[in-house]
Amino acid sequence: MSSLFPQVYYVSSGARQGEWNMAFDRKLVEVFSDGRFQRRFGEGSALWRFYAWHPSALSLGYGQDPESVDRQRCLAMDIDVVRRPTGGRAVLHADEFTYSFLASTRAPDAEVYRVVHDVLLAGLKRLGVNAGFCRTNPDFRRHYRTGQSVSCFTASAKYELQVDGRKIVGSAQRRSGPVILQHGSLLLSERHKLIRELIAISDSDVLAAVTAELDSKTVSVAEIIGYVPDFSDLLDVMTQALDASWLTVARPLDVRDLEALF
Questions:
Q1: According to DSSP H, which parts of 128-220 are helical?
Q2: What are the catalytic residues?
Q3: DSSP H or E stretch at residue 82
Q4: pLDDT tens digits for 28-75?
């Protein structure tokens, strides 16, 4: 159970364009930072957002070199290129179920990271996916100096979710004072691997290494249960897991409830 947040809300914003998704998260950080969310929904409240992407988009970490991806190739494949407000490396958002979590809290980042993943872990179990926590942290500074680090899914952080050592959820955090934003991607199919066609790497050996790491270090829901679940089914599974894991009743909000705060 998470005792960090006395009241929990969630909103489903469905499938949206990449820039809309990232702008919405940035605005949510603003309304948590200046207290508009708390004044409307209560001190200590937390918010989950569940969403998807249409069309597909490639997102870059806020500090990532934009030249690391082939924008012309993305344009030709009708894939938006956007920048995330969190760190990490590039993610291709194709067949995935995405979440954002926001709260104003003094709890350590690692604790928030873990309790959020507790919910995702329970949701995956309801789908028939037996995932587990990654128990170690790689040397990210060293990893980011390698060419294959352009993709977020070539390394797992502590408490990220894996199945038999292969990453199924990739997450990132950013803190602005007491306000924390965490968001991440649950892989539903192998389409995330198309990122190897979108990164700007001319060295064939490095590209081969990226391909090999995506194949060996990632896994999708469809590879485990044999199909891609509908968004509505995933929403039901995750909200049920949220209630059960945190022993709370998360209250639903409409997108318009939040837009009224912007």
A1: 140-144, 204-217
A2: 152
A3: strand 80-83
A4: 999 999 999 999 999 999 999 999 999 999 999 988 888 989 999 999
